[in-house]
Amino acid sequence: MNIRAQVSTVFHLDKCIGCHTCSVACKNLWTDRKGAEYMWWNNVETKPGTGYPTKWEDQEQYKGGWERSGSQLQLKMGGKASSLGKIFHNPDLPTMDDYYEPFTFKYADLTNAPAGKDQPTARPVSMVSGKPMKIEAGPNWDDDLSGSNIYAANDPGVVQLSEEEQQQLFAIEKMVFFHLPRICNHCLNAGCVGSCPSGAIYKRGEDGIVLINQDKCRGWRMCVSGCPYKKTYYGWTTGKSEKCILCYPRQEAGEAPACFHSCVGRIRYLGVLLYDADQIEAVAMKEDSELAAAQREMILDPHDPQIQKAALKAGIAEEVLAAAQASPVYKFVKEWGIALPLHPEFRTLPMLFYVPPLLPVLSMENQGSQKMAEDFFTTLENARLPMRYLAGLFAGGNEEEVKAVYRRLIAVRIQRRSATVGDMDEAEVVKAREIAKVSSEQIEAIYRMTALTHIKQRIVVPPMLRDRAIEAGIDPETYKQEMGFGKRQAPKRRW
Amino acid sequence: MSGNRFGLSVVILALLLFCPPAEAEAAGDPSRGEALFVGRMAFENGGSPCLACHNLTGVGISDGASYGPDLSAMYEDYGAEGVAGVLESLEFTSMAAIYADRPLSEAEQVDLIAYFEQTSKLSATPDNGKLAMLVILGVAILLVFTFLIGKRRLKAVRQPLIDRQRNLINKGGLQ
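The joint structure predicted for all components is written out below.
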């Protein structure tokens, strides 16, 4: 067993209101630079929709992630030889139009225009060419189902549904959507790391944050293709690729990442997970439908004394272990089993989990009022958002996996409705718990974690222990005076 | 150049003095001579082919090697006998180092002379048009190749979705 710690996250989609505050917080902090205008390390998508960049989920187009070839895992974009063959002309990149051409407005014209008969206007100009442009796309162009007959209809998840299901999805007054915020998943088997010809991308040993070394990056852009979530971006002024760093400088100072901190819906949870790194390859080789469950199996219980012992032996600090025990992510993913990874079938083992949205499912019949617990669960099959669609997003097509989550979420609702409104039969509440296989205490805990938590309980940033992490790799005496603030070149005396 | 020619003349004169006049020469084979000159056929004693250092009209499409003097005008200047004398011993400083131990055989000499005679009738001006055509052809092939690679690259995703919808609307298929 090779125990490692991973800073993992849960996004509770029922609570996301699609306000893009997270995106703006991230943009202001990290990508408000020339050449980085088009990057959104954090973006919020509307589902169904094609997302950003357009149809990023369609790996026939973008060739991201891993696939099984024989008894081995291989990058979908090809092995080492093929990536060397196309190193100067990587064919599988999104075009600027698929992201969007960044634009601004000539605001100065509003105040500086000479006096005239007409109201002055601020014309849109391209931030690439500086010339006036017609805005035809943006990073959230399909927000709240706008242009749904183009964007939502071409969602790769929708396209695979039957004609009937598609019509049901887009029927007038029954249209349904939810928001899907996305950041880098800091995968256990990251496609970007596997595809980098320069070896510039690495997973930080002590916390699993995936980073691009800006000194080593040569801008080949293979990671842009290799990441199936399209979460690495090429910086057009630096000539290097960059990506979400999970605000590690903030975390090292004990603060929540900016997008977590700013989230108005408080949908974001962060905490440490312990996992067995020896299992990564075996898990990534599983069938599509087994991937979500297998990934959950990999996660280890930080309360188990044997695991604790092994973790300490593997060099995980006691403080980190304590953080893992307090981790809300462990509760969501493992204890309660109500959070699932996004597109596990890309086989990168993403460590960002989503609690699937309940609201649109609920309001399919009787506008959310429940008659009988049993009836209620059977309506899952006729939900407004087809289970197949949700299973395609969160469980590699395994509907049972998603249904099990929904049963628990609905059981929480039924019990809480019984407690607060008091119009439910106690027998029904018991039945709901039985069907969902959750205890009353668990339901209370889920309810409290979902609705009534303090930021310190939602976001348990582990102590980053940089001093120890550095000492583990480099003798501190060597390190002394050789690195420091503002020093990027190796000093002469080293060689 | 003039120094070279002077040296050449001295050698030829010396050879003429010491050698008995050649008997009726066997007719050389110019095509074998060409093969020897460009190195398609190896010299019997292992000398390197003339083309390695010399240029000659009629070989290749542009100017060739320039280590030794251009041989295009040699036959015209010195005639068959003069050339025969040179080929017999090849006593120039830089050539002697190679050919002293690897002299050309009788037959080879004759074939080479026949070849020189043949090429001396060709125009000495290189055919630049042909070269230009070849360069243009090469560039064209390169461009086609680049285009074919480029066709696979950076396929637009969003625009085709829009175009498809516009087409449907134009045909009246959708609102």
